[in-house]
User: Fold this.
Amino acid sequence: QVQVVESGGGLVQPGGSLRLSCAASGFTVDYYAIGWVRQAPGKEREGVSCISSRYGSTYYADSVKGRFTISRDNAKNTVYLQMNSLKPEDTAVYYCATDLLNEPPCARVVVSNEPYRYFEVWGQGTLVTVSS
Assistant:
């Protein structure tokens, strides 16, 4: 069964850090692009970061560039999102997602306000709350 499961969310103070994990099963993460998408309360989903399949090129939304880092561990079949210098506006449910039929265009994902167009497999999400 193909699925992705997020973990690592929680409550953190502004300026703090969290590392989100996206554990994949039913497929291998280095063969497919994986994206992180977030949805803040009352807002549409937005692409945050994406890692491409073959070369592992990484892409970031301008709002998180320099603060977030996406990576993958092929041995653990897991993709991570390291989030540093967190801000209250980073508060959201974070989802990881992929598409096994059509390679999601990572460069478009991170500038899109309709990232759902590019993914067919979604996790359940993990909540990140940045608050003092």
Observations:
- The mean pLDDT is 95.
- The first strand starts at residue 3 and ends at 7.
- The first helix runs from residue 106 to 109.
- The two ends are 40 Å apart (CA to CA).
